[in-house]
DNA sequence: TGCAAACTTACATCACGTGTACTTTTATGG
DNA sequence: CCATAAAAGTACACGTGATGTAAGTTTGCA
């Protein structure tokens, strides 16, 4: 059975990439609201209707990469390493996110997308929704990783506080400008503070 | 000059209330997406265009009360009580939110709105956006309340972890059903865990 | 009573998003 | 190599949310 992608699949992937790249270029050129879906479709040489068979909404074309990264991280987040405490597991998850943000050769693109998401309210809202649902999955994973040791509220407190600190740390760092290395450094410090707190409290210490 | 509201103001308030009440009734009756703005306007005996002079969007008519409550809380959050630590101040803010959620005589309406917001994705996204921006204001207020004692990252870590724990605590509690008193109890426990952590870390202890 | 400002309305317009039927392209089997 | 079926893409129509504009109506005030 077809280990080779096949012409059909390859064409789909090419169209999808053309839509994403064209959309991003247009958004950065003339602004998100000022760009219509019809223009994005024309730039990729497809019909407007076809755009919506690839992406459910105009926001999705910006956030689909972030969604995929999140999915990947959450899959590897599922299993607990031997001897790992809840705080350790969360720390490892956040480090995975940092790596996805920083180490890519697409660092420039990621930074541009971040700026776009932060400045466009509807994108910010969708991104927050994405992260909120991801946190629910993290709560489930954390409870499964420590069966009988954490109830739902304790898991929610752990995930919510660490990811909450990370989100606001990134956002505050971005708002006051500065190089992205510094922003990540600030966020890492914020997460460190939240984790230090967690480790001092009974159910998470080890 | 006009201490008495005036006929014009009273009429505006009545129309506004009619729009909110009618919208909420329709949303609960036949669902959020299934209700059009035109129907809401007809129920309040105004034109569709007038609806948008009262509310910027369909979501706004659901979230305007929450927005006002948040604004009120953030105003009173501004000043630090004598001898209060950052953790104390945050604890007080969260308690204010709990009171706004629980003690009202409109408890039923608030619960219904919460259920609506949680089940409709676009409302959930807007609500998260509202809270995210509120957290930024809390970071500013916290820094102003403790000048020279907290930098931006420390303030972000404190606000983000406590509010993050509260949000996820509420959401997890709501998801697994149960009476609203119990949900608030669970959230209070989640916040307590995050606060206990904060209090154990240097910049927030007292 | 009459004027000015605020409010409301009807109308036009645009973009997002979806349903549907039709055409084109790709895969497969004789 | 062609015929057929499945998949993808297209054209078209439509509903809804949201905004601009210019007129009409109500209110406050002199």
From TrEMBL, chains A, B:
Record field: transmembrane: none
Family annotation (InterPro entries) = DNA-bd_HTH_TetR-type_CS, Homeodomain-like_sf, HTH-type_TetR-like_transc_reg, HTH_TetR
DNA-binding region, residue range(s): 36-55
Keywords carried by this UniProt record: DNA-binding, Transcription, Transcription regulation
Pfam families xrefs: TetR_N
Q: Where is the HTH tetR-type domain?
A: 13-73
**GO MF annotation, one:** transcription cis-regulatory region binding
UniProt-listed SUPFAM superfamilies? Homeodomain-like
Q: What is this protein's name?
A: AcrR family transcriptional regulator
Protein's organism: Streptosporangium saharense
